Amino acid sequence: MTSSCDIAVIGAGVLGLAVAADLRARGRDVCVIDPGGANASSVAAGMIAPAMESLLDPGAAEPVNRAALLRQARDRWPAFAARHGIALIRDGVDWIGPDADGVVAQLAALGFAAERTEGGVFCPEDWRIDPVAALAALGQGGEGLEGRVAAVQPHGAAWHLTLTDGREILARSVVLATGTAFPELPETVRRAVDRVQAIGGRLAFTTRRLVGRPARFAGGYAVPLGEGTVIGATMEAGGLLVEASGLQQTLLERACEALGLAEIGPVEWRTGVRGATADGLPLIGEVLPGLHLALAPRRNGWLMAPAVAAQTVAGIESRQTG
Question: How far apart are alpha carbons 8 and 290 in whole angstroms?
Answer without folding.
Answer: 10
